[in-house]
Amino acid sequence: MSIYSIADLHLDPLGEKPMDIFGENWINHEEKIINNWKDIVKEDDLVLIPGDISWGLKLEDVCKDLGKIEKLPGTKIISKGNHDYWWQTKNKLNSLNFKTIHFLHNDSYIYNDIGICGARGWPPKDSDEFNEHDEKVFNREVGRLELSINSINKNVSKKIVMLHYPPFNFKDQRPNEFVDVMKKYNIDICIYGHLHGEGHKYAVEGKIENISFYCVSSDYIDFSPIEVI
């Protein structure tokens, strides 16, 4: 049993959102992801996908993309990204009746003795355009992370946080309030995505505050799921 992760699949059910604006490596990226996934992931593995799953705007459009993910090996945990406009209530998502997909939504998932939790996150407060509205959303997302962590069975051996946005400041790349919450609850691993192309320069990885951080944006990891446990 292994746990893998890859974010920012950016599947496109309508064929209207080419991602090669971020570089030629994005050409045929969906095919690359699917082929690499099949080569690496086994049926008893877990795959964490922290956001930006599909460009579809409506749930009925995204079902095509979710169906592709459903057919891939492994159990998949999906959390929300900033472009997942199709995201609905937990009950609505569960009503899709996918067998290998769990939607992480203010709750957690236990895999053997490992607790998986998370939130979308939000851009850091030192972002140039951060305003009063962002402050409210930022604080709400911090609260959602804490709510998700608190839903974990306390007997787990490890705790993993899934975020879409990096939990670091832009300008000095120091940990922000999301990391403060993770420290409070002794989180072991944090994975995040969102960064593409030139944005890779903002990626922060390694062990910080006793937490192992991984950037798993699909183009950052060459469109191939990486093993985190």
TrEMBL record:
Tell me the superkingdom of the source: Bacteria
Task: Point out the signal peptide segment.
Answer: none
UniProt xrefs under InterPro entries: Calcineurin-like_PHP (IPR004843), Metallo-depent_PP-like (IPR029052), Metallophosphoesterase_sf (IPR051158), Pesterase_CT488 (IPR014578)
**Which GO molecular function entries does the Swiss-Prot or TrEMBL record give?**
hydrolase activity
Residue ranges annotated for the Calcineurin-like phosphoesterase domain, each copy included:
1-197
Per its UniProt record, what PANTHER family does this chain match? PHOSPHOESTERASE (PTHR31302:SF22), TRANSMEMBRANE PROTEIN WITH METALLOPHOSPHOESTERASE DOMAIN-RELATED (PTHR31302)
Name of protein: Metallophosphoesterase
Tell me what organism the protein belongs to. Answer: Gottschalkia purinilytica (Clostridium purinilyticum)
